[in-house]
Amino acid sequence: MPSDATERWFELAAQFAVPGFDSHAHEPEAASGQLRQAEWATFDAIVLIDEIDDDSALAHVYPVSVEANVADGSALVIAASDTPLAAPLTVWPLHAHWIPFAALDGLMVTLAPELIKSVQAARTTVRAHHDSTAVQSSGATLAFEDLLEAMDVLEEAPRLGATQHSTGARLDMDLGLVIETLNIDQSRAMDILYGAEPVSQDEADALGAASGVSSAEILNAVNPLPEDLSRELQEPRWRTGVRRRSAGGNEQVGRTRLGYDIYQLAARQHGNGRDIWRQRLETFLQAEEQ
């Protein structure tokens, strides 16, 4: 779990000027040089993106602190005068992780390319001094340990394609049975039967009990989302919309449901590619927030 020191880092971060964006689509994609909040499974951290694997939606990130007096010999301290923030940044170049975009959250600032190069270069220079300076206090030591634990958890966030088991097979089930069992309207029932609408685990269990079809078969009887849409949904700018649809905090469920909301909309439209899906997500979520 995050420590009090970790929570203090986010309190400090909240004081910094974070650029506002007129819409979801205008928020930048995850990219090198961004200082972002990251969160998964109740663990959080501030991370600096070093590089990204765009196809796999993975970010190579360094753990960062905005707290004072936490640097040890393996840390690089960037002076406040060299950053857009009102405090120095402590970065640990030797503790980089590849984390899924699903764990990335709000953008704080973007650092200059020269600063990223200095952090990358420090992976060699700080190694010689790894044990030369201990973290200065027991509280700082605990905060640092919590930060490293959070990084390990962020690394385990779901990756692109990790939960896609769709078969695309149509359910051989009576329309009236679906309507009555789930107490839903005909439109949604037809979407379920035609594989354009996912069902929850509880709904799959209820339909399975009523029809004799296994819950697993029912859950998988949806058309696979287009690859470009699945990839676009990984971008942190859509995480607010994902969270609104998360059942019991399960963001994978929320991301899947948002994907099928857009997928159904696209059935009445033309065009594909990530730019088109981005425009559809932007339009859909703007209307939802009004």
> Which fold name fills CATH's third level, the topology of the largest domain?
SH3 type barrels
Number-wise, the strands total: 7
Level-1 CATH class name of the largest domain: Mainly Beta
Q: What's the main sheet like?
A: 7 strands, antiparallel
* Contiguous helical run count: 11
Helix-strand sequence: HEEEEEEEHHHHHHHHHH
Unreliable residue runs:
128-135
Mind telling me the C-alpha Rg? 22 Å
Which outline best applies? elongated
Q: Termini, distance in Å?
A: 36 Å
Strand content: 5-15%
Total domains: 2
Mean pLDDT across the residues is 84
Q: Helix/strand/pairing class, anyone?
A: alpha+beta
Short structural description:
The protein has 290 residues and is an alpha+beta fold. It has helices at 4-14, 113-125, 138-155, 175-182, 186-193, 201-211, 215-220, 227-232, 239-244, 251-266, 274-289, and strands spanning 34-40, 43-53, 58-65, 76-78, 89-91, 97-100, 104-110.
